[in-house]
Amino acid sequence: MTGNNSTFGPTFSTRRRSFILGTGAVGAALVAPGMFAGISRAADSGTITYALSAYPPNLRPFENTGQASLTVKALLFRGLLTFDEKGAIQPELAESWEMVDPKTYRFKLRPDAKFQNGEPVTADDVKASFDAIRGEKSTAYARASFQDVESIDVIDPKTIRIVLKQPTPSFTNVLAGQNAPIVFAKQMDNPDAMIGAGPYRLESAEKGVSLVLKARTDFYKPGLPKTQTVRFVAYADDSLRVAALNAGDVDIIEYVPWQSMKSISQTPGLSLQSVLGLYMYVVFNLKQGPFTDPRVRRAVAHAINREDVIKAAFFGAGKPLDGAPIPETSPFYSKDLEHLWPYDPDRSKALLKEAGAENIQATLLSNSTYGFHKDIAEIMQQQLAAVGMDIKLSLPEWGVRVTQGNEGRYHLAINGGSPDLGDPDDLTALFGSGPNTYRRSFGLSDPKLDALLKQGRNEGDPAKRAQAYAELQKAVQEIAPVTFINYRAQGWAMRSAVKDFKALPDQMINQLGMAFDTAYIG
Amino acid sequence: MLTYIVRRCVVAAVMIFMVATAVFMILHVVPGDPVEVMLSAGGMTPDPDAVTEMRERLGLNLPLHQQYANYLSRLAHGDLGQSFQDNEDVLGNIAQRLPRTLELIGMATFLSLFFGVPLGVLSATKRGKLADKVLAGVTSFALSVPVFVVGTVFVLFFALMLHLVPAGGFVPFSQSPRQHLLLLLMPSLAIAVGFTAIIIRMTRSTVLDVLQQDWVRTARAKGIHERRVIRRHVVRNALGPVLTVTGLQMGSMLGGSVLVEYIFNWPGMSGFLVRAVENRDYPEVQGIVLVTAALFILLNLIVDVLYSVLDPQVRQL
After folding, report:
1. What is the model's pTM?
2. Interface predicted TM-score (ipTM)
3. Cα distance between residue A465 and residue A463, in whole Å
């Protein structure tokens, strides 16, 4: 220290020295190689680490608390039927099934199927599970679908018969979906502790953080599952989830953010799978306001430039949807009916003129919780302004948005939808009448649509069914009870070492968890 | 001293009761229905019968005053209720998450004080010199960079480029102490960046203040060694306001570390609270807010007591 520092010099030279020493020590600790050795990476061949976008709120088999829960539950619970990679229905806990007549199904259970506690899966378990779903006080997700059931009869311990009130071809899709699992009948008091027959059992769970599932040795499909341990780790932040994959902390990530899709598909050592099952749509208030007039609703449908929405809100990862959401892979898809409301602002203006509604003021409800819902609303506001509509945005958080939607406090609103059954009967939830909810246009009740939906739903003959749904789409074009915006890409990214993990086709998007049966690290 | 503490404790109890009431009322006024949110999570229309049934099960069909009475009587027994989502005990869940947040806050505070106080003193004693100017620049920068930017840059740099640490996450201490601390370090450092800057600035200004005092001049005149003057007479007297700021800052981190928890996937209280609010899980929200408020009050109490240890005059007030 120099002389002019005599006042503080000696003190602070020592202090500074000790300070530098201190920081140096911390710094040395930071870079000491030993400290960082052995961080558990996702390279263990017997373990797949999967990054969920949210920690499952619960694992109750009959409730549906979102994609994360469904994915995990697919490893723990199984139903009578399931879907194969092409989306065709195949037996699962049932060894075989037959349609005795259009209203009656008979299922033969696998002789070797066991629950996680080692007890065999019997017809009594099937009956108890389905009775719990359709029961009067049930809060099960599939309760409404099970209202079609007339009776469930146990024929013998491995045979069960289900009689429907009327022919309903989509009922087997309900059974193959994830919301009709079979649980151990003698332990059904606590929905959080039910026992399923899936290939894995829950070994441990750290709430909000991770779940560890271990493969069973007595699973009924020989040689499966191929992976000993599946670790689910919740990463709520989109970019951290991608970072975790890049850093090698995890093997597979779900909900790949759209902006990262391109860079991931170009990264060596990583691969991307994406499907187009989920879609965005617009619901209207049909009780009051400008959209009670179908011409005005059609004007909205024609005013949306869907390509622009996809570019701006989804970084191009999507496909325009200007007709009913029936994917090309569906046997009910018809090319002629794919585009019901092509983008045409002039037509939109003409329709508004015809309806005498040229200076519309309306509230567009979306939400601030999901960025892409908000983005779509902002783009639509501009596009509707271009045909002369004055749109005010309402962007509350999700819980408020649900309540406002259920109560009809909007003129038009943005929604996300998913195919539930992989059957055109899914359209009933969009076009049919029913209790008011934010998922459906407020006050929707159209006799013509209801009749066609019912016809399609209860028609045993596939050709006549297709006919009914074609009629339905034509009616929808005219009435425009809702309009659609786009399919959005749903992506999974994984390390190339992950083998045989396949997202199912578009309309089976909710069945992802089944992919863990065959997936392994090679 | 004792009466001082007792008086503060009574005030604290009244405040906690007020918080309990306020959070209950606000939750029930805010639009959004827990049952609707829960049953429509799967993206399907909840059946009206199912909604009614679940409302009854959760006691949400009762008149508000009765729900309030039930809530208070449970609270009086130390029962925070069960989560609407998974029926788990709220207190147990808080007990699991709170230590993680406290640990994060503790580590961040330790780092901030460890670096902040010496640098603040240095800055004050070198007032106008290069070290002071550099520190002034660095602290303005650190204060103006939001924590989510710091966090994201840390992830990019340490996890993705240097591969030194995993990209966030949590490992229980019992499972692997080293990994646990390693994962704790990143979010703590991210918080500490801004916090250290606050401490440096605060320390600098109070030390400068104290350096002007007569007793410092007297101490120097007595020929006391300068190191001792700074340590005993300056720093000790300057630490009071620094401590207050530290206490307040730690309190606000209890509920305010949500961004850091989110970025580093650290399963603490803040993230828990945000999800509870999103799901309208009333018992969870009430429980978390209450515990947080109680801790905040406790923390301030501790700071006040510490203050009185540092400065005996406070005890007379």
Report:
1. 0.84
2. 0.79
3. 5
